[in-house]
UniProtKB/TrEMBL annotation:
<dbReference type="InterPro" id="IPR014026">
    <property type="entry name" value="UDP-Glc/GDP-Man_DH_dimer"/>
</dbReference>
<dbReference type="Pfam" id="PF03721">
    <property type="entry name" value="UDPG_MGDP_dh_N"/>
</dbReference>
<dbReference type="InterPro" id="IPR014027">
    <property type="entry name" value="UDP-Glc/GDP-Man_DH_C"/>
</dbReference>
<feature type="domain" description="UDP-glucose/GDP-mannose dehydrogenase C-terminal">
    <location>
        <begin position="314"/>
        <end position="416"/>
    </location>
</feature>
<dbReference type="Pfam" id="PF00984">
    <property type="entry name" value="UDPG_MGDP_dh"/>
</dbReference>
<dbReference type="InterPro" id="IPR028357">
    <property type="entry name" value="UDPglc_DH_bac"/>
</dbReference>
<dbReference type="InterPro" id="IPR036291">
    <property type="entry name" value="NAD(P)-bd_dom_sf"/>
</dbReference>
<comment type="pathway">
    <text>Nucleotide-sugar biosynthesis; UDP-alpha-D-glucuronate biosynthesis; UDP-alpha-D-glucuronate from UDP-alpha-D-glucose: step 1/1.</text>
</comment>
<dbReference type="InterPro" id="IPR017476">
    <property type="entry name" value="UDP-Glc/GDP-Man"/>
</dbReference>
<keyword id="KW-0560">Oxidoreductase</keyword>
<dbReference type="InterPro" id="IPR001732">
    <property type="entry name" value="UDP-Glc/GDP-Man_DH_N"/>
</dbReference>
<protein>
    <recommendedName>
        <fullName>UDP-glucose 6-dehydrogenase</fullName>
        <ecNumber>1.1.1.22</ecNumber>
    </recommendedName>
</protein>
<dbReference type="Pfam" id="PF03720">
    <property type="entry name" value="UDPG_MGDP_dh_C"/>
</dbReference>
<dbReference type="GO" id="GO:0016491">
    <property type="term" value="F:oxidoreductase activity"/>
</dbReference>
<dbReference type="InterPro" id="IPR008927">
    <property type="entry name" value="6-PGluconate_DH-like_C_sf"/>
</dbReference>
<comment type="similarity">
    <text>Belongs to the UDP-glucose/GDP-mannose dehydrogenase family.</text>
</comment>
<keyword id="KW-0520">NAD</keyword>
């Protein structure tokens, strides 16, 4: 089929590449010309394991092309997939201006007789009806169009695997014919498909993210209590997760969730509920717990060194999770901002995202992709992203290269016995401090 994907971010690019790989003819359109030029040359604008090879091979097979020209993008595709960003507005609601821009482009540049418009961007319930209205307002050429809500569930860092081997595909539509065309489109993937109405499809995405965020904040609160009562969160998580009704996933305590989805989608769902006069107390608490979680780690550090001023502090991990260069809403930024305010000398390490946050800071923060450089002569270190490079960094090296080996591990990367034997002072989440130490500032 002839498909245009609007937006070449994490979702649009991965979707476009996947559809080309399974045999469709895909045009990826983006308003960012620089991104498009790079993509035409086979260069991915995002770090996502496995994506570069798929871009190059599908460009070579002439099944994939990139454009910033609206005529080329919208004139004759049978399907347009909307995968543009829906960032958060100041009040927490979703900004739909990019989605509206695509709807307007479709009506202005489309020349086809029939078209299926698929919304993959995460949009509040009711948005597809808005898209319908935006299109109908301007439609002049009599194109018959149908809408399909098809929310995306990929995770950055494993987006290619998730797209080819997802748990489910949700297809929400008022048109049986359009729904069956989209089912056919994805059929080579052999992923279970659930057909719903449009509103339920839109809600499934928000409810899924809200549920996962709730699991994370729940286990983090249990971890915070474990620290105070002398329990070990890892044993507690294992014990909970062995219950089939609960399962072991999303029960790893830490400094909280970040990224471009959970923070904004939880806030948007609170707003959405508020719009229909429902106060979503549970989700509001989930958000509050998450906002607090990095601050609790900092608080632990403050109790050990009563001032950060002038001290070299290493921050290990900038990306919001491993295997991505995405730093949106990353816990590292909360930690770095606070340390920066308190005039620490911060050296932040990340194997991939080290340059992305550089422009956010005028002074006092340095970025490196060399973990040893970050740690050498540091007074203390925060572990914020559980990259393999961090987990595999030999624990004895902290003693060897830091001025004082004091570690605040927000991802529980190290075994407590090994930490004890190595001699480092080690504070983690939901576990007892190892070799605790008070030093004078
Ligand atoms: N990133 C994820 O892990 C993930 C997972 C599931 C769902 N989502 C949702 O998918 C949507 C896209 O997310 P993302 O992370 O890929 O965003 P992104 O910010 O990485 O990319 C969005 C892209 O859209 C482009 N764009 C903006 N306006 C455009 C327009 N009018 N026409 C064409 N391109 C335009 C931007 O230039 C950018 O390249 C969001 O609604 C997000 O919530 C994201």
């Amino acid at each position: 089929m002839k498909i245009t994907v609007a937006g070449t971010g994490y979702v649009g690019l991965v979707t476009g590449v996947m559809l080309a790989e399974i045999g469709h003819h895909v045009t990826c359109f983006d308003i960012n010309e620089e991104k498009v030029e790079g993509l035409k040359a086979g260069k991915s604008p995002i770090y996502e394991p496995g994506i570069d090879a798929l871009i190059v091979s599908n460009l070579d097979r002439m099944r994939l092309n990139f454009t910033s020209n609206r005529d080329c993008a919208y004139a004759y595709p049978e399907i347009v997939i909307i995968a543009v960003g829906t960032p958060e507005e100041e009040d927490g609601s979703a900004d739909l201006s990019y989605v509206k821009m695509v709807a307007k482009d479709i009506t202005k540049y489309g020349k086809q007789k029939e078209l299926i418009i698929v919304t993959k961007s995460t949009v509040p319930v009711g948005t597809n009806q808005k898209i319908k209205k935006w299109i109908e307002e301007d439609l002049q050429n009599g194109t018959k169009f149908d809408l399909v809500s098809n929310p995306e569930f990929l995770r950055e860092g494993s987006a290619i695997k998730d797209t080819f081997h997802g748990d489910r595909i949700i297809i929400g539509s008022e048109s049986k014919l359009a729904a069956s065309v989209i089912e056919e489109l994805y059929s080579p993937l052999n992923i279970p498909i659930l057909h719903t109405d449009i509103e339920s499809a839109e809600m499934i995405k928000y409810a899924s993210n809200a549920f996962l965020a709730t699991k994370i904040s729940f286990i983090n609160e249990i971890a915070n209590i474990c620290e105070k009562v002398g329990a070990n969160i890892e044993d507690v998580s294992t014990g909970i997760g062995l219950d089939n009704r609960i399962g072991p996933k999303f029960l790893q305590a830490g400094v909280g969730y970040g990224g471009s989805c959970f923070p904004k989608d939880t806030k948007a769902l609170v707003q959405l509920a508020g719009n229909v006069k429902h106060k979503f107390d549970l989700l509001e608490s989930v958000i509050e717990v998450n906002n607090n979680q990095p601050l609790l780690l900092l608080q632990k550090a403050r109790e050990v060194v009563d001032s950060f001023k002038g001290k070299k502090v290493a921050v290990l991990g900038v990306a919001f999770k491993p295997n991505t260069d995405d730093i949106r809403e990353a816990a590292s930024l909360t930690i770095i901002n606070e340390l920066n305010k308190e005039q620490a000398i911060i050296v932040a390490y990340d194997p991939v995202a080290h340059l992305k946050a550089k422009d956010l800071y005028k002074q006092g923060v340095f970025f490196t992709n060399d973990i040893r450089e970050a740690l050498t002569d540091a007074t203390l270190a925060f572990i914020i992203t559980e990259w393999d490079e961090v987990k595999e960094f030999p624990i004895e090296k902290y003693v060897e290269i830091m001025e004082t080996p004091i570690i605040f591990d927000g991802r529980n990367c190290y075994d407590l016995h090994k930490a004890k034997n190595s001699g480092i002072s080690y504070y983690s989440v939901g576990r007892q401090a190892v070799n605790p130490l008070i030093i004078n500032s």
